[in-house]
Amino acid sequence: MRLIIREDPKAVAYYTANYVRQRINEFKPTRKRPFVLGLPTGSTPVEVYWHLVDFFKRGEVSFRNVITFSMDEYVGLPRSHPESYCSFMYRHLYDHIDLRPENIHMLDGNADDLAAECQRYEDKIKEVGGIELFLGGIGPDGHIAFNEPGSSLESVTRVKTLAYETVLANARFFGGDVNKVPKLALTVGVGTVRAAREVLLIITGAHKAVALAKCIEEGVNHMWTVSVIQLHPSAMVVCDEDATLELHVKTVRYFKSIEQVQEQLIGRQNISLKGSISRLSGYDPGQTYRVAVQQSTGDVASELDTGEESDDDNVYDDDEYPEEEEEEEEEGDVQKMAVSSSADMLASSPSEINGASLNGSLAPAATAGNPF
C-alpha cells in the first residue's frame, strides 16, 4: 500500500485528479477496451471532480471511452431530488464532460426489487470486465461507501441500513433535519471495492485521523472497513497533513521517505505511475541525500528554479540531535537534496503544486464555490 501525504485538502484533490487523468491517458481506452472507473459521492471528492472537468475543458483528458460506476444511492429518494447521488454526480461531473450516457451506471434506489437491482449492478460490473480503478472516500468511522462498521469484508452490492452517526453526518445536506435523511441505501460492498484492480482512497481532515491510523497501523478489522485495503495488491491512500495526526511519527516519516527516495534517488523516469520500479536508467546506488521533510513547497520551488541552497540548512533543532550534528560534521561534505513533503510528484510547476491550473482557470474551491 502507498501513502501519499500532501499539505492540505486542495493539494490532495489536485494530486488525486491528476493521477486519475494520467491513469486514463496511460491506459489509452478505446470503445472496445474502455477504462472502467468507480466513483464516490460525498463532500470529499467534489474538488477532485472540478479538477477533472477542468482537465477535460483544457483538452488534457477525454472520458469518451470511460465507463463509470457510482458507489451508492439512497433508497426511496427520487433521482431528481437535489440530494440524490444521481443528481450529485451529474451536477459535479457528468454534465460537464464527454462521458457517453450509456457508459454511466448508477444504482436505482427506487427499484421495485432492491435485491435484484443490486445483483444487476454486480453483473454489469463483471460484464464490462471489472473495475480498473476505484476512487473512494471514507467516513470518520472508517466506512467505505455505506459499508458501516461491522460490514462483511466479503460483501457485495446490497441494501444497507445507515448507522445513526451517518444519518447525523448527512443531515447537513437536508437542512439539518435528520428526519429527512433516508435511512436505507444501496451500496457496493467491501468485496466489490476489493475486486477492483486498483483502489485509491482520499482521506482529509483531523476528524478522519483515527480512521487513517486504523487503516495504516492496525490490523484488518470489520469494524473499520477501510482497513481491508491492506489486503489489496494495488492500493493507495492520498491524505493531508491533518489526517496524519493520529499516526506515529515514524510511520509518517517512513512513507514520506519512500516517496522521497523514489523521486530523488531512483528517478521519476524509472517509476511507473502506479509506483512500481520498471528500470534503473541513470540510477546511482552510491548517491547520498539528506531529507528535509519540513521545508515548505515555496522554498523547494525557489531552490529548483535558482539553484541556490536554502539558508535553513538544518531543519531540525540543533539541541534536539546534538550527536547527529557532530557526526555529520566529521563525515565531511555530504550531497544535500532538499525534499518537500508537499511538493507534488505529478505536478510540473509550482502553480500546479498548489492546486491551480496553469492558466488560472480553476479558482480555489474555498473562495470560488462550484465553478459550474
From TrEMBL:
The answer to whether UniProt assigns keyword Nuclease to this entry is no
Q: Which catalytic reaction applies to this protein? A: alpha-D-glucosamine 6-phosphate + H2O = beta-D-fructose 6-phosphate + NH4(+)
Q: What is this protein called?
A: Glucosamine-6-phosphate isomerase
Enzyme Commission code: 3.5.99.6
Q: Which UniProt keywords apply?
A: Carbohydrate metabolism, Hydrolase, Isomerase
A GO BP annotation? N-acetylglucosamine catabolic process
Q: Write out the function statement from the record.
A: Catalyzes the reversible conversion of alpha-D-glucosamine 6-phosphate (GlcN-6P) into beta-D-fructose 6-phosphate (Fru-6P) and ammonium ion, a regulatory reaction step in de novo uridine diphosphate-N-acetyl-alpha-D-glucosamine (UDP-GlcNAc) biosynthesis via hexosamine pathway.
User: Which Pfam family, just one, is annotated for this protein?
Assistant: Glucosamine_iso
- First-level EC class: hydrolase
Which stretches does UniProt call biased (Low complexity)?
338-351
Sorted alphabetically, the Gene Ontology cellular component annotations on this record are: cytosol
UniProt feature, compositional bias: Acidic residues: 305-332
| Gene Ontology MF terms | glucosamine-6-phosphate deaminase activity; identical protein binding; isomerase activity
- Per UniProt, residues of the Glucosamine/galactosamine-6-phosphate isomerase domain are 8-234
Q: Which Gene3D superfamilies match?
A: 3.40.50.1360
Question: Into which family does the record put it?
Answer: Belongs to the glucosamine/galactosamine-6-phosphate isomerase family.
Chain intervals for the UniProt region annotation (Disordered)? 297-372
